[in-house]
Each structure stands twice: as C-alpha cells, then as structure tokens.
Amino acid sequence: MIKVKTELPEVFDSFADARQQGFLAMKELKDSGKGVVGQFCTYTPQEIFMAADLVTVGLCSTSDETIKEAEKVLPANLCPLIKSSYGFAITDKCPYMYFSDLIVGETTCDGKKKMYELLGETKNVHILELPHKQDTPEAKALWRAEIVRLKERVEKDFDIEITDEKLREAIHKRNMERRLLKEFYELSTMTPPPMTGQRQLQVLFGSQFKFNWEDKVAEIQHAIDSVRTAYENGERTVSEDAPRILVTGCPMGGVTEKVVKVIEDAGAVVVAYENCTGAKQMDRQCKEDGDPITNIADHYIQIGCSVMTPNPNRMELLDRLCQQFSVDGVVEMTLQACHTYAVEAYSIRRHLHEKGIPYLQLETDYGTADIGQLATRAGAFVEML
After folding, report:
1. What is the pLDDT of residue 15?
2. DSSP for residue 73
3. Is residue 266 located within the same domain as residue 315?
4. Choosing a second label site near 181 at 20 to 30 A (CA), which of 46, 91, 100, 324?
5. Are 256 and 193 a contacting pair, CB within 8 Å?
6. CA-based radius of gyration for the chain
7. Transmembrane region positions (predicted)?
8. Does the residue 377 lie in any domain?
C-alpha cells in the first residue's frame, strides 16, 4: 500500500488564487477517499485507472516558472516540458503532481527516462517500457506485457482488483469520451469554422483536468451544443476567407498556445490539431469485444508519435486530417531540444510538399521572449497562402 498524501504543501499560502483552488479541489478529492494517478503521455492507457475507479490527471507542465529550479539538477539544453515537469515536482507547486499517489511515466524519449529516475527518488513512479516499433510481434507482445504489469502495479498499490468486466466498461466509457471530443473538433470542418483554434484548444486541453467522468462528458456535449447552436443562429467568429491551418508536432497547452495566437492574429484560423492534445489520441476507437488487455495494448501502440520508427501512422493521420478539414497549410510546433520531432520534421515537410501542402516549422520553448519572431514568421507564412 502507498502512503496517501492529503495535506496541503507548506508553500500553499504563497500561491495565487487559481492555483490555490486547484490544490483545494485535489485535496477535496483525496479527502473523499479517491486515489489519484498522474500521467505524462498519450501512450498511457487511462482505461486501467478508470477500471480501478481512480482519478487520472495530466502532468506535462506548460510553464517556465520552475525551470530555473529544475536546471539546478537537469541540463539547460533539455526539452522544456521535461524541465518544467520536474521543476513543478520538486517545488510542490503543481497540485496534480503533489497529490498523485502514483505517477506513470513511459520510455518515449531519453530525456524523460532519465528525469523519471530522479523523480522516483521523491515520488511513487511506475515506468512503462514503450517499444519503438508498432508492427512486429515482439513489440506487440512486449507492450501487452507492460499493460499487464501496469494493471498489477495499480492493483497492488491501491489494494483493488481490476476485472475484465471493469476494463470493458472503462473502454466503453473512454470510447464515448473520444467520440464526443472528436465530434467537437470536427465541427471545424465547416466553412467558415464555427470557432477559433484557441477556443478548440481550450476545450481539448482542459478536458484532461475534469475529474468526474459524467461531468466531463456532459461539459463536452454542452460545448458541442453551444458551438453548433450559435453557428446555426448565424454567429460567425471566423472569416470565410481565413486560411485554414493544421497544427502538428509537440504537445500544446499553456504558454505554447502563443503559437496558435500568432497564427490567428495573422488572419488564419487553426482548424485541426494532429498532436497529442488533439486528434492523435481521439481519432480511433478501442475495440470493445474480446480480451480487454489485448484491445487496450493494440489500441495504444498504434498512436503515431515521432518516437516510433518508422512512423507511418502519423503520416496517414496527417493526410486524412488535411483532406477532411480542407487545410491550406500545416504548422509544426517543435519544442527546443525535442530531438525526435525535430528530426522527423524533415520527413513531414517532404511528405506534405509532395502533396502540395505548404509547411512551416516553428521551434519554441516555454518563454515569451520569442513571440515577436514567431509572429513575423507566422505572418509571412499566412500571407503566402
């Protein structure tokens, strides 16, 4: 059994009101007896935690607030997502990291793997061994075994039995969530789109911080209904002539929303997100019939991330989204020192150019000093569309 943390951190009184409210909301969950699992990656199967009636929270930090603290341990020339996440962990400034009873990491990239080792010195950490191939029997067998190992770890840590019946129910509920989020972002296939890319991102990113499943699906449905009703009533928030942009690359949220803002300030509209925040995790349904562990393993290993080699599923999803959303151009947001996405950007550029789709890569971090440069490059790109 794990030691359950229910008290607020010593630095609580120094936090701004919004963060205090986040801590209080998490404390209320913990006081009610709920276990909390923190996860970093789209490859982490939420169905395991849902089947155990645990709360799942996303831990990929999106601010440079704690990076200086992190750089006392981690190298400066490391991905800001890794430094920020570690910084929030060691400073107790993130309510989700602080109250997580179990943190699940994964072997997506080398920087994360080594950071997780350090994180494990102060947190209860479980690492999923993610194979970097998707189509071999050996990779599939390893990944299924890793899902079983995660299930057994959750059962042990939280003293609970996860049955096949509970897993099937969790798959069904997660599929419903995926369908609703997909229905929401597919509203932007319309011309003109009924919402800005900033509005779409707020819902997609914010959905991972809704802890009651019934409330979450109700809020997503409300977002769908409100956007559709406003559009049917003649409300137009986006010009019909605005160039339609698809965003791909690294995970987005928080400070990196600046990329969406400069694109839309330049007169374009972001209609689709292929990245982890968007279609990458919502596009497909998990099979519900048959062995639930095998279904979960088969579903998640097919996600098209740049850590996979080769990575045909990302190309296939990009092609489909570009056609479905009538995309005029693609912008790739790459975080500094994210080597897998930085290297794969060349293949993405070549692939899209062969199809006649304009492409722009924007490299950035969690600071705001580069907003002017980003705006200049985004403006020039939009102007040529």
Report:
1. 44
2. T
3. yes
4. 100
5. no
6. 20
7. none
8. yes
Decide which of 59 and 242 is more confident.
Answer: 242
Q: Could you give the CA distance from residue 248 to residue 275 in angstroms, rounded to a whole number?
A: 5
Find all residues with CB under 8 Å of 292, minimum gap 6, and list them: 47, 164, 167, 168, 171
Instruction: Name the strands in the sheet holding 329-335, side by side, starting at the edge strand that comes first in the sequence.
Output: 269-273, 244-249, 329-335, 359-364
Residue 39 backbone phi and psi in degrees, to 5: -130, 155
**Spacing of C-alpha 144 from chain mean position:** 22
Q: What is the identity of the amino acid at 28? A: E
CA 113 to chain centre: 18
Cα 184 to the center of its chain, rounded Å: 16
Token pair of 173, please? 């509920």
Query: In 3D, which of 315, 178, 332, 312 has the Cα closest to residue 260?
Result: 332
What digits encode the pLDDT tens for the residues 53-80?
Answer: 999 988 878 889 999 999 999 999 999 9
Q: Which domain holds residue 27?
A: 12-162
65: Cα separation from own chain's centroid: 20
pLDDT of residue 14: 42
DSSP per residue over 354-373, as a string?
Answer: HTT--EEEEEE-S-STTHHH
The H or E element containing residue 28 is: helix 17-31
Instruction: Answer whether residue 3 shows pLDDT above 60.
Output: no
Report percent pLDDT > 90 for the chain.
Answer: 84
